[in-house]
Every structure is written in structure tokens, then in C-alpha cells.
Amino acid sequence: MRGVPLEIACDESGSEGGKLIGGETDVFAHAGVRLSLDEAAACLVELRRRIRSPAVEYKANHLLRTKHRRVLEWFLGPLGPVHGRAKVYLVDKKRLLANELRALAGAEIRPDDAILAAFNDVLRTRNRRDPAAGSFFAMAGDTAELRAKVAAARDAEILDPLVPAILRAVEYWSGGGEQVLLVHDEQPSLKGDRLARIESAPGLAGVKFVDSRTDPRVQAADFLAGVARRIAEDELNGNGDEKLAGLLAPYVDPASLWD
To answer: Looking at the record's lineage, which domain of life comes first (predicted)?
Structure first.
């Protein structure tokens, strides 16, 4: 007889579907936290006490404000509420796109911004006459083999990192042999084949989608995903904060597409 599954609350930051270049964010972050409802509620109470904002709903941006630097350091630090009880899967979106381009078009291709943008566009459109298609194949080589690979990749929706991130969360948290119940913020895009792929993952006892405003555990995951994404983006863009990067490091999943 199976025991009670391990409940892991999850949320993401930086999700823009398959748009990996030219969007609002450069990094995708997916966080999972292992907290009870009471522990997560206490975390939110303490954040409110420390931040003292009149906002009805607190978000990661509250922690990221300069005046709340000490609160952020506490949240991520060894005395914080999620230390040793959370993991974050990070994806450098541009790097993911470049990897997929090389896999389809050959390792010798140079993934500059122009061809990456065209590649991203051609995988996100169903219109064969879209100008992006002509642009991409002109740069990458217009062969029947490449067109077939692109069509297959488009059908497989290979660019959106959300499903792979959720599957990785199941893999990580079930690594000790426990069955995992994921409590995840509502995601309208997770249905049909995408949801079926998640539900068939080994180690998954089930997945429950909730409104983050009603579950403090998911709110804690939202905080962690949001601050992790911003810290990672600053590092990626040459504006990194050594101390914050050091505080984040223990949380970063080693399977992340991140250096």
C-alpha cells in the first residue's frame, strides 16, 4: 500500500510559451517548495511583517525592491523559510533556442540573433507562407529534410519550457522513492496532450491546479521563482549581484539549462 504522497507546491516566472527571444524575459524559472500549509502561511505573515506594504497580494517584486534587500537576503538565506526545502529549475531561453536550432540544422550553424529570431518565429506559426519561414530557410538552408524536421518540431511544441520543467520537478522530488502530488498554480495552457504527458510521469501521484491566491504554499513558490528569475537575468545580462547569486545557488536544480 502506498503512503501519503509528498505534496510539492509549484509556480513559474518568465513563462511566455514558445517565445524565447524578443519577449519580456530572458530567463524562465520554475520553483517547487516543500512546505506545509501552516509553514507557508507563517512565511507569508513574516514577509508582510518585514515588508509592511499595504498591498493585498504580495509578489516577488516586493522582495526585489532595494529597500527590502535585507528581507530578500533573509528569505533566501540559511535562516529563511524555504532554505533546504525548495528547488528552482532555470532556463536561459536564448540558449535553449540555440540548442534546438543546432539539433535541427546542424552543429556547424552559427546561432546569431537574426537566425534565432527567425527560427523562433517559424516554429510558432502554422502559416507556411509566413515571411519568417522564408527568412529562416534562406539562412539555414532550404532542404526537404530541414523542412520536415521543423514541421515535426512545431508539432511537438519543443520550445515551451513549462512542461519539461514540471516533469523535472516530479523527477527531482520523487528521487527518494516517494510519490509526488504537485500543487500547481493554474495554467490554462496545460491541457490535452500536454497535461497527459505530465500525468504519465513516473513518480507522479497526481497534479492539482489551484488559484495561487488561495494556497500560501504556491505563493511561496511564486516568490522564489520570481526572485530567482530576476537574479538569474541580472547575471545573464552582466549586472549580477555576487551575494544574491551566492544565496540563490543552493536552490538551483543541477539539471537547469543554466551556468
So the answer is: Bacteria
In this predicted structure, the answer to whether residue 48 has a pLDDT above a threshold of 70 is: yes
Mean pLDDT (whole number) for 201-205: 97
User: pLDDT tens digit string along 5-18?
Assistant: 999 999 999 999 99
Q: Can you tell me the distance from the alpha carbon of 67 to that of 71, in angstroms, rounded to the nearest whole number? A: 9
**pLDDT tops 70 at residue 128:** no
Q: Which residues, in sequence order, are bridge partners of residue 210?
A: 185
Q: Residues 27-56: what's their mean pLDDT?
A: 93
The answer to whether 22 and 43 are in contact (CB under 8 A) is no
Checking 19-23 for CB contacts under 8 A at 24+ apart, the result is 19/120, 19/124, 20/93, 20/94, 20/96, 20/97, 20/120, 20/159, 21/93, 21/94, 21/97, 21/113, 21/116, 21/117, 21/120, 22/117, 22/120, 23/93
